[in-house]
Design brief:
The structure is a homodimer.
Chain A lengths: L2 H21 L5 H7 L4 H7 L3 H25 L4 H12 L4 H9 L5 H24 L8 H13 L8 H10 L6
The first copy, chain A, binds a DNA duplex (30 and 30 nucleotides) through helix 1, helix 2 and helix 3.
DNA sequence: CATGAATCGGATGTTCCGCTTCCGGTCAGG
DNA sequence: CCTGACCGGAAGCGGAACATCCGATTCATG
């Protein structure tokens, strides 16, 4: 593959990631191409259609999340700390994209499998955190995952924005009614 | 006005409120009409275009919120309790609609004025809650309002869903780092 | 009950927007 | 210098949603 082609492919991925994270799943192909400083034709040379691009991004992001979660889980730290790190790692990445993709039929088997793996990992971390008493017990792991989704997958989410911080604090156990 | 016309107008408003709250601002006129058990023609008889309907709903909801907030603020309870009641009152109403409308130019002056009033009320409640020590001080009132917007305006929000509860708990002051 | 005016219903017309294609021009690499 | 891979963006295409229009229907009144 020619050098400029490879460079342009990277630009497309970077720009697409950025735009999806900022504005959500509705971003158009034209916008992505323009943000990359390229024409739409070039975009379609690298990804045959929108779904191909989205799937590619989603799979990379999910695999990255899975690996990161596994790595943190292997550390000798509290499960709560694991959860915090994973959440902070996610915010600002295009997960809005992923969940919207994961829910709808056209998700590929590969993507679905990744979603299952990630969900399983998260559930395990959350349950253990509840067991060790660092995460409130009055909500189910599924509810916690749902919560995290809303907060982390919102367009424009940042690792250290107020909502993320407040939500994490609210998840701690405590004398709160 | 004929009795059936009045009844149908009510149905339209009810259905539109419901759909906007559930699915967000993207709901189509056809969907609203169908949910009301009516044809689109009837919908357009009562509201000349989409903006008219949306503006009408937004103004009602904002006025309702303002009045409710004022009423709670007049009670002899902590500002924190006021805030909690206002938040719970909002969740499940079509505020996603309102904020998306308030931000864009085509908002009418009346709507803009209502938004200002509501924001002023909220800011005052939040500041006083911080003063009385029932609301954490490490975030600004504007950030708190932003937070509330995300949580309360999300399609499908419920007054007692986990995210609302967790976020309110996270807003309390405490020994958290 | 009869009448006609108000109201309804939904097929139709229109516009807009985003995806995708296509091909002439350009450029990297040998 | 030459060639084939690569790029750019104008144009084609399709779907979706808004808004209109008019025949059918329903309410209210004498």
């Amino acid at each position: 593959m020619r050098a400029d082609a490879r460079r342009n492919r990277e630009r497309i991925i970077t720009s697409a990631l950025d735009l999806f994270a900022k504005y959500g799943p509705g971003v158009s192909m034209e916008d992505i191409a323009q943000a990359a400083g390229l024409g739409v034709g070039t975009l379609y040379r690298h990804f045959p259609d929108r779904l191909a691009l989205v799937t590619d991004l989603a799979n990379s992001a999910l695999a990255d999340l899975r690996d990161h979660a596994r790595a943190q889980a292997a550390e000798d730290i509290s499960r709560w700390e694991v959860l915090v790190r994973v959440v902070r790692h996610c915010a600002g990445r295009p997960f809005a994209l992923i969940t919207s993709l994961a829910g709808t039929p056209p998700a590929t088997p590969g993507t679905q499998e990744l979603v299952r793996e990630v969900n399983a990992l998260l559930a395990e971390i959350i349950e253990k955190a509840q067991d060790e008493g660092t995460l409130r017990r009055d909500i189910t792991p599924e509810q916690v995952v749902g919560l995290l989704n809303v907060v982390v997958c919102r367009p424009g989410a940042q690792p250290d924005d107020p909502l993320t911080t407040v939500m994490l604090d609210g998840l701690k156990p405590g004398g709160r009614r």
